[in-house]
Amino acid sequence: MSKQSMTDRPVCAWVAVTDASGRTHMEARWSTVETVATHAA
Fold first, then answer.
1. Cα 14 to the chain's mean position, in Å?
2. Burial class of residue 1 in the structure, from the number of CB atoms within 10 Å of its CB (0-12 exposed, 13-18 middle, 19+ buried)
3. What is the dihedral of CA 23, 26, 29, 34, to 10 degrees?
4. Whole-angstrom Cα distance, residue 29 to residue 13?
5. Is pTM beyond 0.70 here?
6. Intra-chain end-to-end CA distance of the chain, in Å
7. What is the DSSP string of 1-41?
8. What is the distance between the alpha carbons of residues 10 and 38, in angstroms, rounded to a whole number?
């Protein structure tokens, strides 16, 4: 079992990428973002 925090979630973001010939296309990039819980006072 991983010791990674259960608050980390994978998030997908689409980014525009331009190749060497000048063509632009969209690529999906996944990253892990830590969520922060907020509590009402």
1. 9
2. exposed
3. 130
4. 5
5. no
6. 35
7. ---S-TTEEEEEEEEEEE-TTS-EEEEEEEEEEE-------
8. 20
- Of the candidates 41, 14, 6, which has an alpha carbon nearest to the alpha carbon of residue 30? 14
Query: In the numeric block, which tokens belong to residue 8?
Result: 């980390």
What CA–CA distance (Å, rounded) separates 41 from 38?
9
Distance between CA atoms of residues 30 and 19, nearest Å: 20
Amino acid at 40: A
The residue to which tokens 């010791």 are assigned: 3
- pLDDT, one tens digit per residue, over 1-40 is 455 555 678 899 999 999 999 999 999 999 987 656 566 6
